Structure to design on (708 residues):
């Protein structure tokens, strides 16, 4: 610089020549001079610096840094020329140096700029005589001006982003104690400070990108991260499961199992004592884990079983755990396991813990389903058709109003009825003008459906044995507008003597209720083998009476539909197989499009092959109450020897008939003997009323049977 000043003072014409020189040559000379100064400062480290410069060539190629370097160099050259001119005239270079230089470039990227601390500003002001301090002042002025411009632009473009960036720059001012020239030198050398600035710039850029994202884009990125986390967790779980599959599960010791069995037997006593203390509360988490392990072993028993354990041991353990976990008694859980497979039993138990969907049946005597749906939707009811198999059913999802107290309900436009209750009426399919008998009619859901199918023609005999249920039956018949129904209160077993022959009979027999556990949870602990046996015996008697009421010579009828809301075989297939042996009937197709086939064999018992025409419905399969439907067709009014001999008791050969009855009773089982005794008593009652005038249908039946 001194040589240039001397030359400028000696020959003023040389300055004009230097002004005419191109800016590129002056810029290259300034760069070379800068490199020489760096080598002098570092001494022997010049070689290393050269190596670092070669490494730093890649980031120096960026457009923004090149702009900054070119701007600084052009400012230096212009300022030096101005100083040389003014030193010849006045020698006031120090005062002139404060003028604002013309800037040829602008830079909006803050990541490449380094702010100057306040200390360096004071030093620069005090040491303005030396050449290095002048360069520092120039760079400080440039950086300050650029910071001010960028801050103004940031405030205009981003409301919240400017504050964050200003905080970052303030933190950098506190940390950095070196001047701008030193930082620039480190950048040329390629030191650690440049790498730190690059990492900080990348972080700031990522934060700026997050600020610029829309809320929906942020949410989508968050969801993607959660999804990736879940997939990784599921893979780990799968690996753990694969490891556990290879291991064998050891059942708890006999002492613990015995204690748990004793605890299951004494549930009632434990519940009474648990009011004051909580010592007897089972650990449901460990029980659930044990259930899963036992089910896994039973799925591949040969490979996963313990060598000293039998299959029955695992089943007993599973039965006791399921009874404790779901709140059943031991008998019902074991019955389900013996009837179904273990996985299906688990599905059935889970389905019984949730309520079935609310369904309603349209009363076609008063309104069409389409019109009813429109009216209910206007009242805030969310509903859909129940399915293709029904033309009158509607499935209710939710409702803003009580579904059982709407004006439409009060007017009799629909009936709240479970989907499974549609099935027996659809299977019976009564025709207009027929005589139909409903043996157990209350509360009237099936009876009103039969009246709608018959379009209020013919006659429906709605019988109900329990007097307390007659009120609900009569109320529903009146509300639904059924004018062809006759309500009666008889024992279903006495109906053949009261009504005589009808065209079709519907018997929805009283049962144990094992298919409607979701509605009545008391079934879980209240049913036993004796209860099911009693129900089965009553169902056999009612079915015999229902078949006797049906007329085989009917032109359009002669059908009997037997249904229960139970899933036990003793109340379903076994009762149907019994009537096939005792009366001249056969099983026909129900006409239902879905449902599982009936069992033809169960635990060593084999039934008639036609029992497969029956249909079973399950909560875990069809999402409706457990149900059984069977349709029978009466082939002739001729009955078996039991009825023949009992009806011939009215004749004079009473002794001969009693001998025949004794032979039959000895060959039959106890249930058949009970039925025969009841029939004998009924016939004795008829014999006492012999003096009364016989009805026409009684005379016709006697003529068909050949009884005088």
């Amino acid at each position: 610089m001194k040589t240039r000043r001397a030359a400028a003072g000696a020959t003023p014409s040389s300055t004009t020549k230097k002004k005419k020189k191109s800016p590129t040559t002056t810029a290259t000379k300034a760069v070379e001079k800068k490199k020489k100064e760096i080598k002098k400062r570092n001494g022997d480290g010049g070689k290393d610096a050269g190596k670092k410069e070669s490494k730093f060539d890649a980031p120096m190629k960026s457009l923004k840094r090149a702009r900054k370097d070119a701007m600084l160099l052009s400012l230096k050259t212009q300022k030096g020329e101005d100083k040389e001119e003014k030193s010849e005239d006045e020698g006031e270079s120090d005062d002139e140096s404060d003028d604002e230089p013309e800037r040829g470039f602008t830079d909006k990227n803050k990541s490449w700029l380094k702010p100057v601390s306040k200390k360096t500003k004071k030093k620069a002001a005090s040491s303005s005589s030396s050449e290095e301090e002048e360069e520092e002042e120039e760079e400080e002025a440039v950086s300050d001006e650029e910071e001010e411009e960028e801050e103004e632009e940031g405030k205009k473009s981003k409301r919240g982003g400017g504050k964050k960036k200003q905080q970052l720059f303030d933190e950098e001012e506190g940390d950095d104690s070196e001047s701008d020239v030193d930082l620039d030198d480190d950048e040329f050398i390629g030191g650690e400070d440049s790498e730190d600035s690059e990492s900080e710039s990348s972080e700031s850029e990522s934060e700026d990108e997050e600020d610029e994202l829309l809320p929906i884009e942020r949410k989508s990125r968050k969801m993607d991260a959660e999804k990736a986390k879940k997939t990784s967790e599921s893979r780990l779980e799968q690996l753990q499961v694969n490891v556990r599959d290879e291991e064998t599960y050891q059942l708890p010791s006999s002492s613990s199992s015995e204690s748990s069995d004793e605890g299951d037997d004494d549930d009632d006593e434990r519940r009474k004592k648990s009011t004051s203390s909580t010592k007897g509360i089972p650990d449901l988490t460990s029980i659930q884990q044990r259930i899963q392990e036992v089910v896994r072993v039973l799925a591949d028993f040969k490979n996963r079983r313990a060598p000293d354990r039998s299959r029955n041991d695992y089943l007993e353990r599973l039965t006791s755990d399921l009874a404790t976990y779901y709140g059943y008694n031991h008998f019902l859980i074991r019955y389900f396991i013996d009837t179904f497979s273990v996985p299906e039993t688990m599905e059935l138990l889970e389905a019984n813990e949730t309520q079935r969907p609310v369904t309603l049946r349209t009363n076609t005597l008063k309104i069409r389903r389409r019109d009813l749906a429109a009216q209910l939707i206007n009242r805030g009811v969310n509903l859909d058709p129940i399915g293709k198999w029904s033309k009158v059913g509607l499935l209710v999802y939710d409702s803003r109003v009580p579904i059982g107290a709407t004006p439409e309900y009060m007017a009799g436009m629909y009936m709240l009825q479970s989907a499974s209750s549609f099935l027996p009426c659809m299977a019976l399919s009564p025709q207009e003008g027929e005589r139909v008998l409903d043996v157990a009619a209350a509360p009237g859901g099936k009876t009103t459906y039969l009246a709608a199918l018959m379009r209020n023609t013919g006659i429906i005999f709605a019988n109900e044995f329990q007097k307390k249920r007659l009120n609900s039956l009569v109320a529903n018949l009146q509300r639904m507008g059924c004018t062809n129904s006759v309500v009666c209160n008889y024992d279903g077993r006495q109906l053949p003597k009261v009504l005589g022959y009808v065209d079709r009979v519907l018997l929805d027999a009283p049962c144990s209720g094992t298919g409607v556990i979701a509605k009545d949870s008391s079934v879980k602990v209240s049913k036993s083998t004796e209860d099911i046996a009693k129900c089965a015996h009553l169902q056999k008697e009612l079915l015999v009476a229902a078949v006797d009421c049906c007329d085989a010579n009917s032109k359009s009828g002669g059908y009997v539909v037997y249904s229960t809301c139970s899933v036990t075989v003793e109340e379903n297939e076994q009762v149907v197989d019994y009537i096939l042996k005792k009366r001249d009937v056969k099983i026909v197709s129900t006409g239902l499009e879905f449902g599982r086939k009936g069992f033809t064999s169960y635990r060593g018992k084999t039934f008639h092959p036609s029992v497969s025409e029956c249909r079973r419905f399950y909560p875990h399969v069809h999402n409706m109450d457990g149900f059984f439907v069977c349709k029978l067709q009466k082939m002739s009014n001729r009955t078996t020897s039991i009825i023949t001999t009992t009806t011939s008791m009215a004749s004079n050969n009473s002794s001969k008939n009693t001998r025949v009855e004794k032979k039959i009773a000895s060959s039959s089982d106890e249930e058949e003997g009970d039925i025969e005794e009841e029939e004998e008593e009924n016939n004795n009652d008829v014999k006492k009323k012999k003096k009364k005038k016989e009805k026409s249908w009684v005379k016709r039946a006697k003529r068909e049977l050949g009884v005088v």
